[in-house]
Amino acid sequence: MRSQNLIRLSGAVALCALSLGAAHAATGGEPAAVVQVDVAPCLAAAAADDMDKAGSACASVIDNEKTAKADLVKALVARGALYARHDQVDRAIADDSRALQLDPTLADLFNARGELWLKKGDKPKAVQDFGAALKIDPNHEKAKANHKAMARELERIGAQMAVAGKPSFNCRSAARAVEKAICANRELADLDREIFASNARAIREARNPAEAKALQREQDEFIVRRNAGFGRPGYDLKKAMQDRLQRLNGVDG
């Protein structure tokens, strides 16, 4: 009887020990085996420009919660570059943005995303990314060239916006009806300013003083015709101004 009780007790103790061991391992007492996510197939497919293989291989890395941070960044950068090469700009920006959230020290990636913003026509964001790349690496050649070019472009756009809708003359002193009509219409105002600038360029590039004088006389005659013709039946001010601008800039504009 005692022997039977000892057998049952030892069995219970063994079962208890097994249960405690399993619980101990489950709560971190012993490190559980971690399955490593292999990023190599993703990188290889992206490098080979294989959209089909990269699609599944990279997704298995990027969508896996167990992927190490460094490998996740690698996969995002590789897939983003692949998307960029295939003109899938929005997808490329999304991958680059996620990678930069994980690792904001990647100057090359900031520059790459800046170039993608340029493709989308978002110049302010492009300049911001080029600047971020230079902040990380002041000697980044591509970022320096991109930033310089965009800074000039934005400066030019800013200058254009500052004079948009403004003619070559002061509207406050406009006395003629045609001048008031030009001031009241942004398109006509822009045309007037372009005519004035193109005429000034033509005179500046004249081969000699006589040619310059002849060009200015032609411009003065256009103004006289414009002033006299405005308001008369059949006179099209916009067309007259467009024709004058085309003549100043040549047949090809």
Automatic annotation (TrEMBL):
Quick check: keyword ATP-binding in the entry? no
Q: Would you indicate the residue range of the signal peptide?
A: 1-25
In this entry, which stretches build a coiled coil? none
TPR repeat boundaries?
Answer: 73-106, 107-140
SMART domains in the record, alphabetically?
A: TPR
What keywords tag this UniProt record? Answer: Repeat, Signal, TPR repeat
Q: Which PROSITE patterns match?
A: TPR (PS50005)
**What SUPFAM superfamilies does the database record attribute to this sequence?**
TPR-like
InterPro entries reported in the protein's UniProt record:
TPR-like_helical_dom_sf (IPR011990), TPR_2 (IPR013105), TPR_rpt (IPR019734)
Q: What is this protein called?
A: Tetratricopeptide repeat protein
Upper classification of the source organism reads:
Bacteria, Pseudomonadati, Pseudomonadota, Alphaproteobacteria, Hyphomicrobiales
